[in-house]
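ingest -> validate -> predict -> emit
validate: passed (alphabet ok, no gaps, 214 aa)
predict: started
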Amino acid sequence: MTETTTFWWVRHAPVTGFDGRRYGALDVDCDISDTAAFQALAGLLPARGVLVTSALRRAKRTASALEDAGFQAVERLEDAALGEQSFGDWQGQPTDAVARAAAAAGAAHHHWIVDPEFTPPGGESFRALEARVMHAVRGLLARYRGQSLVVVSHGGPIRAACMHGEGWSLERALALTIRNLSVTRIDGLREANDRAVWQVRWTGRLGTDHGQVA
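emit:
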């Protein structure tokens, strides 16, 4: 018998103090002042569930604001493996400077910050991010079979999770628009042979879309 585990991926609140610069895996702060947005987000999510965050401050603060808005966490944990891609030496640099550096390295990409196979100096590739994120997610699937998990994370990890959905691909996932405080729902099924099957139900919805969500 298969059991469905529901992952409600939430991208953190908007980052502050880094306008026009790439922050990647830097531990930057975020703006959680929009109470109405968090209340709407809580209305889109299940009323209660396991709350999981990356180890970065912006994910943890977003999760706390979500609890303040009414989401009831039956358990809360954090996992550094769910953090954003590290762009190494490029972090903190203007976005146009990063784009030029990627182009100079022959690693420009039309959907992502840099080609997913390329490792920025001092950083990691998107493929490396994918490997660590999916290792963590498979562990959650095994541990919380049949439950609802709200995972507060980042644009890169959410795209990595989507690319493993049935009928999805790397390029389709990288082309997604993942807005701050948006929700992406992915169902995980662990079959009798211990194989994980992922189904992307929808991506990038805001709390104001809750009346349209099934």
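The first helix runs from residue 35 to 44.
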